[in-house]
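G., the chain you wanted modeled:
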Amino acid sequence: MAKIVVTRVEKTVMLPLVRPGRWYWAMVGVLAAIVAWAAYAYTVQLQQGLVVTAMRDRISWGLYVSTFVFFIGISHAGTLVSAILRVTNADWRKPITRLAEAITVFALVVGASAGRTASCSFPCTDASSPRFCGTSRRSRSTSRAASCTSTSP
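Predicted structure as C-alpha cells:
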C-alpha cells in the first residue's frame, strides 16, 4: 500500500476547508440573514396576499405557475440525463448520474413548493387579498368570477 504524501502547497490550499476563518463565518451570517428575511417576506405574503408585492393584476399568480413549470422541466432534464447514462452503462457515468439525480430531487422539491404556492394560494391571489381564503368553495368561485368581470382596478 502506497503512502499518501501531502505537500506544503496542498496543505496551504486545503487550510480554509479544514479551519474556516472570520470571513467564512461573516459570509455564513450574511447568508443566514438573507434566508431569514426571505422566510419572513414569504410568511407576510402568505398572510396578506400578493398585495404586499405590488402585483395587483388578476393574473399575477402566473409567476408561481411559470416557476413551477420551470423547475419541473429541470427535474425532467435531470431524469433524462440519468436514464441515458444508466442505459449506456459507462464506467465514468457514476458521479454524473448522482449529480443528475440530485438535481432532479432538488428541482422537484423547489417545484413542488412553487406549485403548492400557485395552487393553494390561487383563490387568495386572484383578488390580491386574502379575503377569499376562508370562504367556502361555492362562494369563493362566485366571488372570483365576480372579481374577474369587474372593470375597476
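The helical segments are 8-18, 22-48, 62-88, 94-120, 122-126, 137-149.

Shout if anything looks off.
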